[in-house]
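help with this:

***
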Amino acid sequence: MPATLILFFSLTLLLGGGVLAHLIGASSILSFVAADRVRFLAAAPQRIIANIDLFSMMSMPLFILAGEIMNRSGVTQALLNLAIALMARLKGGLGHVNILTSVFFAGISGSAMADAASVSNTIVPAMRKSGYSVQYAGAITAASSVIGPIIPPSIVMIFYGALMNTSVSALFVAGIVPGLIMAIGLFATNAYLARKYDHPSGEKVPLDELGRRFVYALPATVIPIIILSGIVFGVMTPTEAAGVAVCCAIGAGIVYQQMSWKKLFASLERTAVISGSIFILLSGVAIFGYLAGLERLPTLLAHGLASLGFTGWKYLLLLNVIFLVAGMFLEVPVALALLVPLLVPPGLAMGADPIHLGIVIVVNLMLGIVTPPFGAALLVVSAVSGAPYWGIAKAAVPFLLTQVVVLMLLTFIPELTLFLPRLTGFIH
């Protein structure tokens, strides 16, 4: 009976427009009462602080700030011009430009939604003028946006690392190869479809112009290089790299003469809003995780799944399905906060590597945002470009199938994920 009342309260609050973080926190506190664990609530504030007061979490608002500054200071346009110079001359060239731009953006913002919105405003109109259907242009934009949170820096990986107390540096290094494999798969799919549907080649930039654009884009391209090399070679922690990224972003904005106090304050304001919402969510999840630990829910769940035969590769498949569906319906931080504390510990108990599981989960959630009927990236691209949602969804199917194949490779060949962290000494 108490569980039914709590569920009814939660659904009522959710349907009434309640904040999910408040919903999780309130439901968890009521569950303490229902489970006769009220006396343990005295330690709840300490558990909340312990869940937030992590050195690795300091990097999250700094990376968000760096991305916001770079999106406002001409960095993204410089990278876009370089991508056009490198790839547009190929068959289906603007499709390749779309994908390469997402790879470049991945080293800046690490946000799939920001990538989808930005590219929808720039490359999609250019693709339409060159003869591509708006559905295809929107589909490849949505599909390539998933690369952003896979190639570091990644806000999603920082969030996962905080939830599971896992090395963010190792996660960043582990995401490089999967992100590049995903990009290669999308390049191959676009090349095949370009020949099948006779997509046009784009602008053939002369070599001297290519050199000029490369030099102009240097301040933008060195930022992800500094971040990644600093982390990979152990020179900087992710938090230090995030601080350096902010300084580099401001410096690049000054070089491109597009930095101003107004843009800096707008970036700070946006960063505060995003970071605040994530920290509130983490606070609610801390209470839920505290109760789950007291009631031994992860252990009970592991035993229950094992009794049903979900062990080894079967459990990995189950995780794929759950997180893929969660990515379709929930915002990524919400899905991580709700599911990771419950579903990852059983996997670890079965012998899975936390870094490998983290990358697989991130890729699943990213594929969820391009999977109908509620793919968030599809909705963003449709809204920004004006293309019909279901037209984009249909055109995205070949790309989504390619991404699912990549996901299966990453799931069942852990070395694709763990090779680079082992090589650089982050795991043994």
